[in-house]
Amino acid sequence: MTVTPEQLAEIAAARSQSSTTRRPTVPGLEEILYEAIPILDHGFIRVVDYMGDDSAIVQAARVSYGKGTKKVSEDKGLIDYLMRHRHTTPFEMCEIKYHVKLPIFVARQWIRHRTANVNEYSARYSVMDREFYIPAMDQLAAQSDQNHQGRGKLLEGAEAAYVLDILKKDAEHNFSSYEDMLNQDAAGNQKDPTRQGLARELARMNLTLNTYTQWYWKIDLHNLLHFLSLRAEGHAQYEIRVYADAMLETVKRWAPLAYDAFTRYRMGGVHLSSGGLAVVKALLAGAKPEREQHGLSAREWRELMEKLGLEG
Amino acid sequence: MTVTPEQLAEIAAARSQSSTTRRPTVPGLEEILYEAIPILDHGFIRVVDYMGDDSAIVQAARVSYGKGTKKVSEDKGLIDYLMRHRHTTPFEMCEIKYHVKLPIFVARQWIRHRTANVNEYSARYSVMDREFYIPAMDQLAAQSDQNHQGRGKLLEGAEAAYVLDILKKDAEHNFSSYEDMLNQDAAGNQKDPTRQGLARELARMNLTLNTYTQWYWKIDLHNLLHFLSLRAEGHAQYEIRVYADAMLETVKRWAPLAYDAFTRYRMGGVHLSSGGLAVVKALLAGAKPEREQHGLSAREWRELMEKLGLEG
Amino acid sequence: MTVTPEQLAEIAAARSQSSTTRRPTVPGLEEILYEAIPILDHGFIRVVDYMGDDSAIVQAARVSYGKGTKKVSEDKGLIDYLMRHRHTTPFEMCEIKYHVKLPIFVARQWIRHRTANVNEYSARYSVMDREFYIPAMDQLAAQSDQNHQGRGKLLEGAEAAYVLDILKKDAEHNFSSYEDMLNQDAAGNQKDPTRQGLARELARMNLTLNTYTQWYWKIDLHNLLHFLSLRAEGHAQYEIRVYADAMLETVKRWAPLAYDAFTRYRMGGVHLSSGGLAVVKALLAGAKPEREQHGLSAREWRELMEKLGLEG
Amino acid sequence: MTVTPEQLAEIAAARSQSSTTRRPTVPGLEEILYEAIPILDHGFIRVVDYMGDDSAIVQAARVSYGKGTKKVSEDKGLIDYLMRHRHTTPFEMCEIKYHVKLPIFVARQWIRHRTANVNEYSARYSVMDREFYIPAMDQLAAQSDQNHQGRGKLLEGAEAAYVLDILKKDAEHNFSSYEDMLNQDAAGNQKDPTRQGLARELARMNLTLNTYTQWYWKIDLHNLLHFLSLRAEGHAQYEIRVYADAMLETVKRWAPLAYDAFTRYRMGGVHLSSGGLAVVKALLAGAKPEREQHGLSAREWRELMEKLGLEG
User: Fold this and answer.
1) Do A280 and A258 belong to one domain?
2) Is the confidence at residue A68, as pLDDT, over 50?
3) Is residue B262 included in any domain, yes or no?
4) Terminus of chain A with fewer CB atoms < 10 Å: N or C?
5) Domain span at D296
6) Co-location of A43 and A112 in the same domain
7) pTM of the predicted protein model
8) What ipTM did this prediction achieve?
9) Is C23 part of the annotated catalytic residue set?
C-alpha cells in the first residue's frame, strides 16, 4: 500500500490547516500541497513546502523593490530571455521541498545530484517497511542490443512470468530473513525470546535494491530544472523518469512561465556542435554535405539527422 | 538616505497584501516581512521570503508525515540534540531570503561564503547610487598593535577629523568623476552633448570600495548559522558583524528553538583541543599543569586561560 | 577475492612508471600510490592521485609566490593556527583521489557527503561481480538497547551462526537469480538461447545491499577532514569507520602537519556548550555545580562528565 | 610592474626544482608551470599545480584499474561522447590551481562562480600595492546603444584622453589618501610620528575598484570549462575575457582531447529552441517559415538567423 490510513489522516489534517501570509503564494500549487501523487507500485511524491514563484525570478533579475510595476507580458519576455541565455541565478531564488517514496536503486541514481538538501529514512534507527518495486508487465524489457545502458524489446510470456516470479519471491524471502535476523515481527514484537536480534544497521544489508525508502528532498528551481532535464528525458531509466515527469507537472503549477520557457528552450531544444552547425548551413545553402568532410563520427551524424528529422 | 520614498511605498504595498496558505507560517517573522532594518549609515537588511520553521527541522529529522504528534518539549530536546551532535542536514530544510544593501568591501567578505544564492545589482546594466559608507566616530579605530587584522584604540580628534575628511571627499570626488565619464548627471540626463560617455562596465572601476551595492541573498538555515557563527563573532570586522547581528535577530523570530540551541551550543560554547582538555582535567584533579608539558603554544595557553576565565 | 591477478598486474604496471615533475611531490605518499589497501572482506582503498601538500596550505594562507622563505617550525605554527581558528579555505588547496571498493549500504552513507566528485561503477552498463560483505564474527552485534542507531553485545554461538548463514545464503541466492534473469553466466555467456535476458538496469534491483560496488572519489583536504571527523569517529558505523581509518593513515603520509593539527584540535578535542563551560568554570572555582542550575539535560550532563573524565 | 624581481627569482627557483612522481604528468603543462602569463597592464595568470589529464577522464568514465588498454583513438571518441551528451562527472576528476592577479572589479565578477576554492590576498592583514588597471586606448569604449550591458564605439581623441586622465588621477590620488590614512609610506615606514594610523581593514575602503588584488583559485576541469564557456565568450566583459582566453590556452596544453571536444561541442556549437528547430526543419523542407507562426520573438528570430548565417 502506498499510503497508510494513518498517513492519509495526517495529510488531511495538514491540508485542513491554513494561515495568513504576506509571502508570495501560488494557489495552483496550494491546491495539491501535501497530497501524495502515486508513482510506480508503492511510491509517491508530495510537495510539502515551497518558496517564491515566477515573480521571484523576475524580482531577482531586476534586483528591484517589491513586485515592480511591469506587466505580465514583460515578465514572460524576461524569463524567456534568462532561460535562453542561461542566466541561471534568478531561478535559484525559488525553492521547493518534496517528500518522496522510491525504490533504493532509484534513490542511488537520484542522489548523484549533489545540489539538493536531503533527509532520508534511516535503516540504522528504524525498521524498513515490507514494500518492494515489482515492474509492471509493460516494463519488463530485455537488454537493448544497441545501447549498453538501455532497454530493448519486452520480455515475452514465459520469460516475463519467470522473471516476475524471481523478483517477487527473492524480495519477500530476503525481507523475511531480515525480520528473522532482527528477531522481530511485522508488528514490532520479539519473535524468539532466546535470541537477541541482529543490530538494525547490519540486518539491513540483506534487503534487495528494490526495497522502498523515503526522503525529504529540497532544491532550488534552477537545480531542479537541471535535474529534470536529465531525468525527465528519453534516455533516463523509466523508474526515475516517472518521478521526474510528475515533478515537472508540479513545476507547471508552481512557476508556469519558467515551466514554459524550460519546455521550449531546454527540453524541446537541441544542441548543434560546430560540425553539426556547418552541416545545417551547408544544407540550407542547397549543398550535399559529406559526413567526413565535417569531421562527424558515424554516431554523431546519425544523431544529427535524427534531430533534424532527416533520413541519415 | 537608506530607503527612498518610492521604496517605502513599495514596501508598504507588499506588506499590505496577504494570502491564505497551507504552508507552515511564522507570525513573528511575518510581522517584519519586507521591512527594511537599517544597518550602518545607508545599509539595511530585509527578510523578503522564508520557508519552514522549527517544526520543519523536527519533521526532517523524523522523516515523518505531517507535523507529528510529539509535544513541543520533545521538539526542543530533539533540536538541541541535533545541534549538539552536529546533525546538520535537518537544519537545511528551512530557507530564508534577504534583500541586503551593503558597502562593496563588506560584500567582498560576505560573498566568500559560497553556499548561498545571490543576485547582485549590476553596475554593467545600471548606474550606481551616490551612497558611501563613512564610519561613525566611534568606529574610527587605529590598527591593532597585537592583531594583524584587527582594530586598536580609537583615533583621537585631529586625526579622526583628518581621516573622515579624506573618506568623504575621495568618495564624493570619485563618484563625480564616474558621472563625468558616463557623461550623465544624477537625473540620468546627458551632461555634454558632444561626448559619448564611457561604457558603464568601465566607468564603475573608478568607484571606491565603500560605495553601496545591494543584493538578494538566499540561504538555508544550517548554512546561515554557519555564516553567523563566523560573522556575528567578536573577531569579525565590525562592518559585517552588524549585518550578522541583525540577521541573528531575524533567526530568533523565525526558528526560536534552533536559535536557542545555536546560542548555547555554538556561539556560547568553546572548543578545547586534546591538549586543552588534558589541562582542564589536570586542573580538575587539583594538579598544576605546565604549558610545555601539554604541548600548548604560548598563544594557545593564553587563549585557553581566557576561555576558562583564569589568569594566564 | 579483493583484487584479481589482472588488476594486480595493472597496479604493478602503474607503479613501475615514473615521470619528472615540477609539482610539489610527497615521497611518503608516492610510496603507496596505486596500491590497494584491503578493507573488510573484499573492499579496498587506493590513492590514485593527489595535488599539493602541507606547503600548499601555507602558501595559500600567505598568498605568496613559490614556497616562501619561512622555516618548517613556522609552517607548523601557521597550520595549527588555521586549524584551531577554523580558517578552512587554505586546506581546500590540496586535493586527493581514491579508488574505493565498498558494499552498497556503505556507499549509501558515504554519498551523503556532497562535496566530493564521484564516478561509480554502473550496473546499467555492466554486470556486477559476485562479491558480498559478510561480517566477521567479532562484528556480529545485537541492537544496542541504549542507542537507537548503535550496536550492543556480540551475538552468541547459535544465533551468530544462524545470522551468518542467512546473510551468505541470501546474497548468493539473489546473485544467482540476478544471473538467471540476465540469462548470463559468470563468464558472460548466454545461459539459455531461448530467452532474451532482462535488461541490466532492471535485473540489478534483485541484488542485496551488501553487494560490493566501486568508485573514484575525489575531494579536497578540508572536506576530507570533515568527512573523517564524522566517519573515523566512535559513533560511525564500523563498516564505514574502517574505510575512514585507512584514509586517515593516507592523510598522515600526505600532509603530516595538517594531520597532526587535525588530531589535536578536531579529533582529540571536545566542544563545551555555554552551560558546559559554566559547569567547568564552577568546578575550577571549587564549587559543586548542579545540573539543573546550569540548564543541562540529564543526557548532556552525562556526556559532559564523560568528556571531563569525571563520574556523573 | 606585473612581476617584481624578487618574484621572478622565486618563480625561477620553483621552476628549477624537479621531483620524480608516479602520478600522471603532462609535459606540455609542466613546460609553463609557475610562469606568469601577463594579462592586461599589471595582471597575470600562473598555473601552479594540476592533477590528472585526459586519461583521468577516460579512467573515471570506465571506472577501470590503471590506464586500461584502449587506444588513443578510442579515448578521443569517448571524451567526445561524454562532452556531447553532457556526462560531466568524469571531467571533474581533473583539478587545476591558478595564481591570478586581477583588478577588483574583475574579481567581483569572477567570484560569482561558486564551485572553486579561493584564497585571496587580504587587505585586512596587509597593505595593498599601488597598481591599478587603466584600459588601453583600444578598449575605451562608449556605452552600447543596443545592449544594456555592453560596449559601443571607441571614444575619440579628446574624450578618450579626458577619461584616461580621470582614471589615472583618481586611482593615484585615492591610493595616496590610503597611505596617508594608514600613516605609512610605500616602504612601510610611519609617515607622521604624532599619528596612530587608521586600521587597514578600514583604510582599504578608499581604494578604487581598478586596484589589483590576487588570489589562488583551484577548480576541477568540468567547472572550469563551464566558467570558460561563459567568460571566454563574446558577451563577457573584455577585462575578464582576456583571463579566460589565457586559461583556455592552458587547458589546451593540459587536456588536449577535452579541449578539442569543448571547442567543437560547447564553444563552437549553438542551441536551438523547440521553435528554432521547427524553423530549421521548415527551411530544410523548402518552406518559408514565418516568425509568428513558430512563436519566436523578434529578438529570438534575429538571434536564430545570426546562428544560421542567414539574413533576417
Assistant:
1) no
2) no
3) yes
4) N
5) 274-308
6) yes
7) 0.96
8) 0.94
9) no
